[in-house]
Amino acid sequence: MASLKVRRIDLTANNAAQQLAKLRDQFRIDAEVTTPQSKKLTQAVFGEALAPAKAVERICTDVRDKGLEAVLHYTELFDKVKLKPDAIRVKESELAEAHAAAEPEYLDVLRRIRYNIDSFQSGLLHRDAELRVSGSHELHLRYRPLNRVGVYCPGGAAAYPSTLLMTVCPAQAAGVKDIAVTMPPKDTGAYNRDMLAACHELGVKEVYRIGGAQAIAALAYGTEGIPGVDMVVGPGNQFVALAKKFVYGTVAVDCLAGPSEVVVVADDSAHPNYVALDLIAQAEHSPGVSILVTWYEPLLDEVKEALEKRLAKLGRGDLARESLERFGAFVLAPDKQTAMECVNEMAPEHLHIQTRDPDAFAEEVDAGAIFLGPFTPVALGDYAAGPSHVLPTGGTARFSSGLSANDFRKRTSIMRFTRNGLRDFAEDVAFLANKEGLTAHALSVEQRANDSGPAARPKPKPEKVAPVVATKK
Ligand SMILES: NC(=O)c1ccc[n+]([C@@H]2O[C@H](COP(=O)([O-])OP(=O)(O)OC[C@H]3O[C@@H](n4cnc5c(N)ncnc54)[C@H](O)[C@@H]3O)[C@@H](O)[C@H]2O)c1
Ligand SMILES: N[C@H](CO)Cc1c[nH]c[nH+]1
Ligand SMILES: [Zn+2]
C-alpha cells in the first residue's frame, strides 16, 4: 500500500499567521470541503456546481414553499429512496419491535450511559433566581423548557446511537416533553434497528425517515405530517450544519456541529501510538479533520509510522486514510507558545492535550471540549462521560459552546414594584428617558410616582340579577 501522505506545515515566526489562516479557512462551515463525490451529486441534482451554502438555500426555501413534496423530491435525489408520504414517519410499533429484538447487552449499555449523561446534565441546569428588596421590589429569573424540539441524528456514513443519547438526554433533563427525531432513510439511519431500539428506550415516539438539509427545513418550517418545532439540534455533515444556520431565526438552533475535528497537542512525553489512535478515531468519521500540533519534531515521524500500522488493520481504514490525507495536517510549531496560538486560531471542536502539563496548556486555549492527559481519549466524551458530544466545529468554538441541557430552556425575567419602589427609581428613569427623547416612558413612571390615590380601580359591584322564580305550568 502507498505510504500515507499527511500534509506537513512548519510554522515559523514569519509565516505562522498566514499558514494558520489557510488551515482554518479550509474547515470553515461554509468552506468548499465537500468530497468530489458530494460535488458530483450537487451538480447532478441542480444541474450546476452550486457552493454548499447555495445548494442548502435552494433546498430549504423549496421545503418552506412547497412542503412535503419538496422533502420527498430531495430525499429521492440525495438519498436515492422514493418514499410514499405515509412511509416518512416510523410507526411506533416498529420502534417497539426493534427494542424487543435488541441485544440485552446493548440496552444495558444505553441505560448506563443515559444515567451518566442525565446525572451531569441535570446537575448543570440553571436554577430560577430571585432578588427581593423588602417594601420596594422583587426581581425573578424564571427558566422553562421549550415545548417542542427537533433532533437531527446523522446517518449518511455511520449510525450513531450515541448521538441520540447526547441530544435526547439533555433535552429530557431540561424537561422537554415533545421530541421529534429525524434520520436519513438508510441502513445507517432510520432503517437501522439499533437506532430505532434506542429511540424506544429513550421514550422517543416521533421518528421521521428524512435526512440532510431537507430534514432540517422540514423540522423548522413544518410540513404535512411533520409538525414544526421550536428548536432544531444535532450534528451532521456540512449540508446539515449550513441548513441549521439558514433556518436560525425561524427556530432556535444549537451550535453549528458539522464534520468532526480534533487537534491533538503533544510534546516529547506523548505516546506516539496513543496520538495516532486519536487522530484516526476522528478521521474515521469520514470526513473528520485530524490535526497534530507539536514542537517536538521526532514525534511527527513516530506518529506517521504508528498511523500506517494502524490504518492497515482498521475496519474503516480506507475512509480514515482518505480523511487524513484530505483534511489532516501535521503542524510543527517552533515552541509551546506558538502551538497555543495555533490552537486558538483554529478553536477546534475537540482538543486533546498530551503534554507534561496539560492543565496549564488548557488554561490558555479555546475549544469545544478539552481532553486532558494520556487516559482521556476523545472517545470517552463521544460515548459516555456526560457532557454532550454535540460540539461547535469549523472554528465556531471561538464564540459558541457545545449542547447542554440549559440550551433547551428559555429564560424569562419577571419583576414587580411597590409604589415606594417605583418612587425610588422614578427620577433616574425619567432623566434617562428624557435624554433619549422618549418622554412617554418618563411620564409612565412620573405619573405613578406623583399619584397618591388608590393604585387599582375598585372592583365593580356585582350586578343585581332578578331571582328566578319557578312557575307551575
Ligand atoms: N460535531 C458533532 O457533534 C458530530 C457528532 C456526530 C457526527 N458528526 C459528523 O456528522 C457527519 C455525518 O455526516 P453523514 O454524511 O454521515 O450523515 P448526515 O446524516 O449528516 O448527512 C447525510 C445527508 O446529507 C445529504 N447530502 C449528502 N450529499 C449531499 C449533497 N451533495 N448536497 C446536499 N445534501 C447532501 C443527504 O440528504 C443525506 O441524507 C460526519 O461528518 C461526522 O463527523 C458530528
Ligand atoms: N466525534 C463525534 C462528534 O463529537 C461524536 C461521535 C459519535 N460517535 C462517535 N463519535
Ligand atoms: Zn467521534
TrEMBL record:
GO biological process: L-histidine biosynthetic process
SUPFAM superfamilies according to UniProt: ALDH-like
Pathway annotation: Amino-acid biosynthesis; L-histidine biosynthesis; L-histidine from 5-phospho-alpha-D-ribose 1-diphosphate: step 9/9
Enzyme Commission number(s): 1.1.1.23
Residues the record lists as binding substrate: 260, 282, 285, 350, 382, 436, 441
Cofactor: Zn(2+)
Pfam families, per the entry: Histidinol_dh
TM annotation in the entry: none
Catalytic residue positions: 349-350
One example GO MF annotation: NAD binding
Binding site for Zn(2+): 282, 285, 382, 441
Superkingdom of origin organism: Bacteria
Region (Disordered): 446-473
Residue sites binding NAD(+) per the record: 152, 214, 237
Known role: Catalyzes the sequential NAD-dependent oxidations of L-histidinol to L-histidinaldehyde and then to L-histidine.
Family stated for the protein in its record: Belongs to the histidinol dehydrogenase family.
NCBIfam families: hisD
Protein name: Histidinol dehydrogenase
Organism: Fimbriiglobus ruber
